[in-house]
């Protein structure tokens, strides 16, 4: 597989100016997250009365977490579960569809294959939000709006994943291997599931990870599709709490710590996933970038 | 990929072999792409067709849905609110995207020189906002900008100044641009950095032997090598910024007088459909926005394609 850090023969002298510049940039990008951690540890009074970028004496993080998880009969946990459910089913299903089709487009020639592939690629251009209202109209027509299907089904379509999977198949599945398997009498589908899928594992993981992030972060689609708060993913739920807090003005001090702590709780899984799966998303991006 | 080159060399032979087997395998090919294509047609083509049809009608209190032909589109083309919104997202694009891509390029080039310390840490630090949902990014920045307990306001107050009102009419677009910058610079940086890593280092060494400095190498070798990757980043940025929705929609509750119902075209379509119940017109507005985005993307591709054609 591709390695992102290839050995450099020369060992040049480090530049302090460049290092300081990059550290300053990293500080800017990490600042809001640091603020989030600090703010999550404060009571609503301290939030207003103490300096935002440092901890106050009263460490209130665990109380805030408890309050977040118990607000509205524990609806936050329900949102977390919904998010997980939507993200995992949509990303898993979408990655499988993309792998199957990427393999089909790469290793088989059939009538209309080029046209179909170009049409799907062209679809990358169509703005997803311009598609969301039409999708809502169809789903409400067939009575599937305000159900989990309204989030999962549209998220299964992943044109960019298809493109990536095709690139992966071309780079990592040799024709000779397929021929050998055919001579052994394996059926085309058995070849795919027992031989090809294993070779595609890194590419599959990349597509899966990006689809996971995409669905996890999705806001517009669930916002328009769902009415029932029990079905909300975290993004829509937190936005709703924020809306309530803002609408109530100064008297809503109690909801603000929940929005902040809920935000912190919901980004932790993704940040951890990105840190642990670095190898995958980096090699995936290499593949995507090089192909262009 | 490290082995795309070897793959390309092997292609002609593989292709003839494939040609012979064509008939037998065509059916299997259809079977592999069918699940994707079916979902694609149902979730992509069908809604577009349905909405296109839907946009030709108008809901009336008396008589229900009436066919009105292209009336919704003529209304959209003359709709000042829509075009103000489109002009606003175009301005947003013109300000935000160049800054973001130049910063991403600078970070990628700086990392690629290998001259900085703590490379891994800085790269991850710059990238990590990509893992934060746009909604949460906006909520956080909303608090940070805020006049009540935002640290900027607190710092300004501590030294006896008043902080700029980030949520005012004049600064709002810039404040939104900062949020989008924060979210996506790292993503673009990683794409560009990945593309740089796939350039052979021999060429840098040859240039260095010829006496080229880092600046010269960056300008004359690395940036030209990034043309393709930059074009991809650009296309994604065109699509993303013209569709701007999450950030202004969430900021609306903090600054209701600044962000109106038609602040961006997408917000307008959303409000038409779900506040005003004007679904037919909202569908037409979505199409007009989609056309503007397609036109922008294709114009960009056409321009770069012509320039790079050998």
What do you see in this structure?
The complex is a heterodimer of chains A (about 290) and B (about 300). By secondary structure, chain A is mostly helical. Chain A contains 14 helices and no strands. In chain A, helix 1 crosses helix 13, helix 7 runs antiparallel to helix 10 and helix 12 runs antiparallel to helix 13. Chain A is globular. The two termini of chain A are about 20 Å apart. By secondary structure, chain B is an all-alpha fold. Chain B has one domain: Orthogonal Bundle (MetI-like fold). The two termini of chain B are about 25 Å apart. Chain B has 14 helices and two strands, in the order ααββαααααααααααα. Classes of the chains: A mainly alpha (about 290), B mainly alpha (about 300). Chains A and B meet through helix 1, helix 3, helix 4, helix 5 and helix 7 of A and helix 1, helix 2, helix 4, helix 5 and helix 6 of B.
